[in-house]
Specification:
The protein is α/β, with parallel strands linked by helices and 286 residues long. The chain contains ten helices and ten strands. The strands form two sheets. It has a six-stranded mixed sheet, sandwiched between helices. It has a four-stranded antiparallel sheet with strand order 2-1-4-5, covered by helices on one side.
């Protein structure tokens, strides 16, 4: 099992319609009939690149990851993983595809009763027949890649939040996945830890040749490490997509408000509601 091996990637500029690893084809999804999370969404994620999906809370970013991983089935449309339509009813297919992806969960999702070493070793022990001696070597290399080889014997309760995020990243790349999905990798981190996490995502992508999908609302970090950026709004509507430079230079009011963090603009602070006077009984609803 190679730990540092660059896969062959086509030279030249990014072409979004060329050989995507993941395709979201006219996907509509809602957790119930009362609210649609994603509506007729179509996206392509090219191989070997870092794609960031940005957007405010509740716009469907994490839901998108769940659809790719086969946790939920789309109400309509298709999710395609390397040419295969993801079928949530086909358990053998789901297990086979999931072995090809790594997931960094928003809050790490580490096993608190296991050591740092055993957390990273977990997927190797569960999904391979490798001897323990080889598992040890792989775990130490993965921990070394995230700068935590010296922390292998620590308990999860003994590490900081930034360290926990790096341990979770080491576990996510334990099986050398072709696709690495990051759900809010910068949430709750201090500025130094945030910079370390961003550099790791970019470096690991370049070294391994994996395809990286970063879900976030942290603009500076994503703009610094991404090849392509997609900006989503409520309902899974695509506001803009392009290179980081293109989005930062956009004159579209909604795009500019999000990437610059402006408080006033098309994106409103308040969730749609009746006038406050109506809720307090000061006047009747019209």
């Amino acid at each position: 099992m190679a730990v540092l091996g660059r896969r062959n990637r086509p030279p030249g500029p990014l072409r979004l319609n060329a050989d995507p690893l993941i395709e979201i084809d006219h996907v509509t999804f809602g957790y119930d009939a009362s609210r649609v999370i994603l509506s007729d969404l179509s996206l392509r994620f090219p191989r070997g690149k870092v794609t960031a999906v940005l957007g405010g809370s509740g716009c469907g970013k994490t839901t998108l990851l769940r659809l790719i991983g086969g946790v939920h089935a789309a109400d309509s449309g298709r999710v395609v993983f390397d040419g295969e339509v993801v079928n949530t009813r086909d358990r053998p297919q789901l297990y086979r595809l999931r072995r090809r992806l790594g997931m960094l969960f928003q809050f790490g999702a580490l096993f608190t009763d296991l050591s740092v070493f055993d957390n990273v070793a977990f997927p190797l022990r569960e999904m391979t027949d490798l001897p323990e001696s080889l598992i040890r070597d792989i775990v130490l290399m993965k921990l070394n890649a995230v700068g935590l080889r010296g922390a292998q014997a620590l308990k999860i309760s003994e590490v900081s939040g930034g360290m926990a995020r790096r341990i979770a990243l080491a576990r996510a790349i334990a099986l050398d996945p072709e696709l690495i999905m990051y759900d809010e990798p910068f949430a709750g981190l201090d500025l130094i830890s945030m910079g370390v996490a961003a550099k790791l995502i970019r470096t690991l992508n370049d070294i391994t040749g994996a395809t990286s999908l970063v879900i976030s609302h942290d603009v500076p970090e994503c703009m610094a490490i991404s090849d392509h950026v997609v900006l989503l709004a409520t309902g899974g509507r695509i506001v803009a997509q392009g290179t980081p430079a293109e989005l930062m230079a956009s004159n579209d009011p909604e795009t500019r408000q999000f990437v610059r963090g402006e408080p006033d603009g098309p994106v409103k602070f308040h969730y749609p509601a009746p006038a406050i006077a109506v809720d307090f009984g000061l006047e009747s609803a019209r």
